């Protein structure tokens, strides 16, 4: 049985497809407020759920003002602050599902890629009639992208679009209160007064009570599994890393759209920062689509070097590691 290769895929995405694709990923298509399970030991989770349900009501049925109550009061903006794997994305997707359209849902990277593909003015034009813009994983580590997103959110908020964003507090900063919230509001200072911050605390559910990440497979076993798994792909790590550098990141979702399981041979630590950031986006798209991962070579928790994990993109790399290990466990379970 022949095996497909991601490096052979030619992903093409039109501007209309980019806009239409701003919906929660398959992993969160069924997410609803009713399916969110707040941990009894984490009261902030129940508080965030209650507040977001109320926020959905304000977006859906805005209050009226003026002499004849014809002008709708903007619903405002909410920021979900918390660590990895505490259910912020579930809550954000639930909000999106609870609000009538038009509406948009995407990661920070997907929105910056959208602006890169369409241009700023066209992006504002296409999104300014929406009721809600949901931004998952708002990132503060690139000043240029942060400024771009601040401008975009400001323009859309001025047009009456409700905003909701999530970001992460680093695991070793959770005891320091609103570390991420303070950073978020400082970086978007022109918009910060419009945002209400909701704290979501708790441990990373992706790793709570789970065994250690699966060990890499022998090369022959990886090949055999790829050949016996319908819809699987098999690529060498170095070749796939090189291929990612040739593609716009907005196409990574299309790249893995028809993949049922990804097999990666001869994994090594990622050699440079640019490649590492591309792998973060690819891992996010695989995680969105719940695509199992199997690999040989170095363990997947060694993808990002210790130097990278100490650097400015630490949050991205820790999130990506958390997600790829969850997908590796999916791959091992399927085996």
Describe the fold and architecture.
- One of its GO terms (cellular component) is cytoplasm.
- One of its GO terms (biological process) is cell division.
- Pfam families: AFG1_ATPase.
- Helices cover 42% and strands 15% of the residues.
- The protein has two domains: 6-13 and 208-334, Rossmann fold (3-Layer(aba) Sandwich), CATH 3.40.50; 31-200, 3-Layer(aba) Sandwich (Rossmann fold).
- It is of the alpha/beta class and 335 residues long.
- α2 (43-60) packs parallel to α3, α4 (108-118) packs across α5 and α11 packs across α13 (314-334).
- The protein is built from 13 helices and ten strands.
- It is globular and about 65 Å long.
- The chain starts with 14 loop residues before the first helix and ends with a helix.
- The strands form three sheets. It has a five-stranded parallel beta sheet with strand order 4-5-6-3-7, sandwiched between helices. Strands 8-9-10 form a three-stranded parallel beta sheet.
- It has helices spanning 15-20, 43-60, 88-98, 108-118, 120-127, 143-158, 179-187, 219-228, 237-244, 252-255, 273-288, 306-309, 314-334, and strands at 64-65, 71-72, 77-82, 103-107, 132-136, 162-168, 195-200, 232-236, 261-267, 293-297.
């Amino acid at each position: 049985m022949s095996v497909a290769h991601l490096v052979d895929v030619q992903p093409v995405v039109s501007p209309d497809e980019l806009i239409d694709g701003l919906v929660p990923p398959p992993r969160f298509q069924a997410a609803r407020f009713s399916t969110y399970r707040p941990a009894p030991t984490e009261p902030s989770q129940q508080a965030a759920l209650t507040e977001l349900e109320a926020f959905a009501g304000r977006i859906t049925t805005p209050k009226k003002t003026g002499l004849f109550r014809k002008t709708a009061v903007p619903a405002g903006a909410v920021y979900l602050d918390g660590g990895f794997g505490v259910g912020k994305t579930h809550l954000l997707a639930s909000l999106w599902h609870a609000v009538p359209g038009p509406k948009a849902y995407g990661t920070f990277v997907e929105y910056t890629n959208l602006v890169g593909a369409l241009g700023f003015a066209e992006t504002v034009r296409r999104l300014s009639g929406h009721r809600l813009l949901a931004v998952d994983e708002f990132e503060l580590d690139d000043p240029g992208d942060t400024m771009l997103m601040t401008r975009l959110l400001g323009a859309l908020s001025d047009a009456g679009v409700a905003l909701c964003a999530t970001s992460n507090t680093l695991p070793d900063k959770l005891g320091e209160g609103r570390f991420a919230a303070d950073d978020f509001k400082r970086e978007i200072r022109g918009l910060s007064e419009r945002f209400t911050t909701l704290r979501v605390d708790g441990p990373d559910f992706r790793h709570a009570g789970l065994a250690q990440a699966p060990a890499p497979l022998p090369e022959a076993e990886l090949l055999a599994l790829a050949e016996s798994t319908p819809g699987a792909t098999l690529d060498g790590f170095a070749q796939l890393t090189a291929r990612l550098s040739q593609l716009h990141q907005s196409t990574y979702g299309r790249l893995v759209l028809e993949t049922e399981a990804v097999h990666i041979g001869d994994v090594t630590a990622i050699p440079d920062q640019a490649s590492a950031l591309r792998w973060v986006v690819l891992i996010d798209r695989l995680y969105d689509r719940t695509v199992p991962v199997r690999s040989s070579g170095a363990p997947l928790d060694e993808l990002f070097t210790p130097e990278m994990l100490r650097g400015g993109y630490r949050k991205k790399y820790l999130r990506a590691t958390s997600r790829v290990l969850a997908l590796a466990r999916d791959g091992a379970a399927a085996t």
